[in-house]
């Protein structure tokens, strides 16, 4: 069992980040809040896909004030992504956002930081300090040979943290993102030993869906396995809904959470005598209508399939024109190959009806 690092919990609307709370999955909408109807529709779509926190970019005052129409229509917590102009943060708080993504060191004088903290303090609104390896301060880069390093990212984060701690504000979440996976892992590991705050995990600019999924799974998964991390966003050059699916799968793969059914399937080999890929895809499609956290196996060999997938709640294995439906390694039925999927789901539906 993974032993998680204990962090100070913060409340982002109805979602707790840190402490003993489940690791939450976030994403970021691509819609400008000014386009209210589209933004609301997109947030509802992403929430339906499983996003537990949704972030919106706030490039100007029109976007900051438009957030109010979103927060009054949506139940999912919203985070305002602010850069440089502290007045956008003040307006976003007035609009009812649940958290700010803002770096205290880049919004001007200390008076600006004081204004933001005084605004959010009565509401306990958290600030996420977001450090990216590609945008470290010039003096930190110079001190580290002109290149981003884990120690440089740590120092950048600590500078922002000290500003808030000086004001006795500790509703803090921190991220140390990089597109360089080993650098990102090292930075988070170092920070986790230095501060008690909740950590938001992510590999920034991870890439298109396939490569970005792999990089994110390696980086985020490594940290989670070592007990580090309280919330995550998988950053893909793809529909944000894909980010949610990958984030959920990372957590499921580590046994940290379960999101609906899990499909396992064996690779093809010389023993496979069934259209395994098509069979697995058909089962995957049918599983989309099921919300129960069951594990379903699709195996290509009748001889070894049930034993190799003994931990599955249900499974099928194909042979020469025939196949078996099994549960926890025990054969339930032998049927024609063409009837495998229908018979499998008949058994699953009987189980769901009995449990509900």
TrEMBL record:
Catalytic activity: (2E)-4-hydroxy-3-methylbut-2-enyl diphosphate + oxidized [flavodoxin] + H2O + 2 H(+) = 2-C-methyl-D-erythritol 2,4-cyclic diphosphate + reduced [flavodoxin]
UniProt keyword rRNA-binding, yes or no: no
Known cofactor(s): [4Fe-4S] cluster
EC number: 1.17.7.3
Primary enzyme class: oxidoreductase
Pathway(s) it belongs to: Isoprenoid biosynthesis; isopentenyl diphosphate biosynthesis via DXP pathway; isopentenyl diphosphate from 1-deoxy-D-xylulose 5-phosphate: step 5/6
Gene Ontology process terms (BP): isopentenyl diphosphate biosynthetic process, methylerythritol 4-phosphate pathway; terpenoid biosynthetic process
Cofactor annotation remark: Binds 1 [4Fe-4S] cluster.
Domain IspG C-terminal: 263-350
Gene3D superfamilies tied to this protein: Dihydropteroate synthase-like, Sulfite Reductase Hemoprotein, domain 1
InterPro entries: Dihydropteroate_synth-like_sf (IPR011005), IspG_bac (IPR016425), IspG_bac-typ (IPR004588), IspG_C (IPR058579), IspG_TIM (IPR058578), NO2/SO3_Rdtase_4Fe4S_sf (IPR045854)
GO molecular function, one term: iron ion binding
Keyword terms of this UniProt record: 4Fe-4S, Iron, Iron-sulfur, Isoprene biosynthesis, Metal-binding, Oxidoreductase
Transmembrane regions listed in the UniProt entry: none
One Pfam family per UniProt: GcpE_C
UniProt keyword Metal-binding present: yes
Domain of life of the native organism: Bacteria
Function: Converts 2C-methyl-D-erythritol 2,4-cyclodiphosphate (ME-2,4cPP) into 1-hydroxy-2-methyl-2-(E)-butenyl 4-diphosphate.
Name the record gives this protein: 4-hydroxy-3-methylbut-2-en-1-yl diphosphate synthase (flavodoxin)
Taxonomic placement: Bacteria, Bacillati, Bacillota, Negativicutes, Veillonellales
């Amino acid at each position: 069992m993974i032993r998680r690092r204990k962090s100070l919990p913060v409340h982002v609307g109805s979602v707790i980040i840190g402490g003993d709370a489940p690791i939450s999955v976030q994403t970021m909408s691509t819609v400008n809040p000014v386009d209210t109807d589209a933004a609301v529709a997109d947030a509802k779509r992403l929430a339906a896909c499983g996003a537990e926190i949704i972030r919106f970019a706030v490039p100007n005052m029109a976007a900051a004030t438009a957030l109010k129409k979103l927060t009054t229509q949506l139940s999912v917590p919203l985070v305002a992504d602010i850069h440089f102009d502290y007045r956008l943060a003040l307006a976003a708080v007035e609009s009812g956002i649940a958290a700010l993504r803002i770096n205290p060191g880049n919004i001007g004088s200390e008076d600006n930081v004081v204004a933001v903290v005084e605004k959010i303090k009565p509401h306990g609104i958290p600030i996420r300090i977001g450090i990216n390896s590609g945008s470290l301060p010039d003096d930190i880069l110079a001190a580290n040979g002109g290149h981003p390093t884990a120690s440089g990212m740590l120092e950048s984060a600590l500078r922002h943290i000290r500003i808030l701690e000086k004001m006795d504000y500790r509703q803090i979440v921190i991220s140390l993102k990089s597109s360089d996976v080993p650098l990102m892992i090292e930075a988070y590991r170092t920070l986790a030993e230095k501060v008690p705050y909740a950590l938001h995990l992510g590999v920034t600019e991870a890439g298109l869906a396939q490569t970005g999924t792999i990089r994110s799974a390696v980086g985020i998964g490594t940290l989670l396995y070592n007990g580090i991390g309280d919330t995550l966003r998988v950053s893909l050059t793809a529909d944000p809904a894909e980010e949610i699916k990958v984030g959920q799968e990372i957590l499921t793969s580590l046994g940290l959470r379960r999101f609906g059914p899990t499909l396992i399937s064996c690779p093809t080999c010389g023993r496979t005598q069934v259209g395994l890929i098509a069979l697995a895809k058909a089962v995957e499609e049918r599983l989309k209508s099921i919300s129960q956290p069951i594990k379903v196996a699709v195996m290509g060999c009748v001889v070894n399939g049930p034993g190799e997938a003994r931990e599955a709640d249900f499974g099928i294995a194909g042979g020469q024109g025939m196949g078996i439906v099994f549960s926890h390694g025990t054969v339930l039925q032998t049927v024609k190959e063409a009837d495998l999927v229908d018979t499998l789901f008949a058994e699953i539906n009987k189980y769901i009806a009995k449990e509900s």
